[in-house]
Amino acid sequence: MPKRIRVGQRYLLPPGEWLPGKDRYQIQSFLGQGAFGAAYKATDEKGQVCFIKEFFPAVRPSQVPELQRVYATERDVVRRIGNYELIPRFWDAFQYEGYSYLVTDFVPGPDIETVLKSGQKPDLEVLTRWCVCLCHELAFLHTRNVVHHDLKPGNIRLNEDNDPVIVDFGAAHWYRAPGETTDQLYGSDSYLAPEYQERAVEDAEAGKKMDVFAMGRILVELMVGKRMAQEEIDRKQDQIYGEILHSGSVDVSFLRAVFRSIAYDPQKRYDSGIELEEDITPAAPPVGRARPRVLDFGLIEDAAPHERSIQCYNVGGGTLRADIAADGDWLEIGTTGAITGKSAMFERNRQTVRVIAYPERVPPGAHVAGRIVFTFPADIMEIPVYLRRQAQVAEVYVNPTSLRVHVAPGSSGTGRLTFSNQGGAPTTVRIHRPPDFVMIVTPEEFVLAPGGKQEVSVSIDAKIVGESEANVELRWTVEGNPRPNIPVNAAVRRGSNLLTAFADRFRKK
Asked: Which pairing describes strands 288-291 and 306-314: parallel, antiparallel, or unpaired?
């Protein structure tokens, strides 16, 4: 059980304490607390920094259902949206010693509340990009039928690239079905839509419109460069519009979109962040980002190709274009579904780039470094790539590379594969049977010693093949790394027409 220190009325985790989830997490510092829980900065066992939200246990039995609902709602929402680059990604969720925990990305920069209060207004290009970024994020939430409910400058933080990231989904709701409603309505003063006071329940359509209003308020404050009371914006709206328009090269359509989002009449407002994004994005040029910043294949124990991926995305407007090049004899790249090689390109706002390392091109025992170079319209980004090859490695081959199994009518047939290790290190081979095709593979997993061989039998029943033949592919991996699939053809072997007729006649008797 982890030690705790008393802070006010609560007992909190001190730096150095460990928590067990899918990984182990060590507390680095306490960040703050609210009504339902506390927040910590932590690291996993690899030293990667993360954010941990600890949900307090109930003090009275009557509190249990509400606290369980709060935790489950935020956990489900973060899982739903946690694969988007401009929203903290989901890491883990677990319970320990009566507390519930949610682990996500740690966003290191200040919040927009702090930026606005500092009096240091970023230049127009940065402000415009921030506005476009936030609209990308809101559109993503709304495409996933998630309403944030508490958008405000304090819930937007800047990441290491100085891009704004929406955080804190404790008040959010995921609408799973058409017509679903909730009576759990939240929000913060100055960012509540006017119709909020009139509602006892909310559906997805109403929630998205209120999110749009809150986002519009934030965009106005960003363009003005300071926090403003809602009454002040209402009273001076025309004046503010004019001052922003004449303060620099602000696109008129961009400004109209911002002020349409804060319309008092919900019918005049955008229906969702998706529509707002469409009108906002032309105001900024495309700006490319890539994650992770460093790609490390680690220690490779076999000669099979290994694959990782890099996510590219646009934090600006328009459509992102990039030319990609692999620098390293042992590296190849390709976009999803494309043939890999030394170069590639794409023209879209989110793109997965495949990075394939070929250990066989690296001398045993060597440590090598390469790089993936992205050339964006206004920038060049380099991602370092590292690989260490074990001094003694396994080199596994299969014979034959495709298998034909002859199946007797009413019976079964067996084919055989031989796996051999021509390398200097032992390795584990696993055969993965097709999920939708019944066959018996013996053995399915085995260890190949250096210079060793293993025969594997593949048996298929005639009932599975049917009247003619069947074609499937057998997957196999070496140390968990996929190798080229083995095509398997199973055919029912039938005799001559005379013999077949005689056999049929004999069965009838």
From this structure: antiparallel
Under 8 Å CB-to-CB from 48, ≥6 apart: which residues? none
Q: How far apart are CA 41 and CA 45, in angstroms?
A: 14
Per-residue confidence (pLDDT) for residue 503, from 0 to 100: 45
246 — pLDDT class (breaks 50, 70, 90): confident
* pTM for the predicted model, two decimal places: 0.76
Give the angle subtended at the CA of 171 by the CAs of 191 and 133, to the nearest 5°. Answer: 60
Q: How confident is the model at residue 506 (pLDDT cuts 50, 70, 90)?
A: very low
Say whether pLDDT at 497 is over 60.
no
* Of 24, 483, 41, 48, nearest in space to 296 by CA: 48
Helix H or strand E encompassing 276? helix 273-280
Q: HSE on the CB side for 431, CA within 13 Å?
A: 22
Closest CA to 264 of 210, 200, 227: 210
| Model confidence pLDDT, tens digit, residues 72-109 | 999 999 999 988 999 999 999 999 998 999 999 999 99
Q: Nearest Cα to 105, choosing from 163, 188, 35?
A: 163
Domains of the chain: 5-105 (3.30.200.20), 112-283 (1.10.510.10), 288-392 (2.60.40.10), 395-492 (2.60.40.10)
Percentage, residues of the chain above pLDDT 70 = 96
Distance CA 258, CA 153 (A): 16
For residue 364, which amino acid is it? P
What phi-psi label fits residue 466: left (phi over 0), alpha (psi between -120 and 50 degrees) or beta?
Answer: left
Q: What is the mean pLDDT of residues 427-440?
A: 90
Strand partners, 53: 39, 102
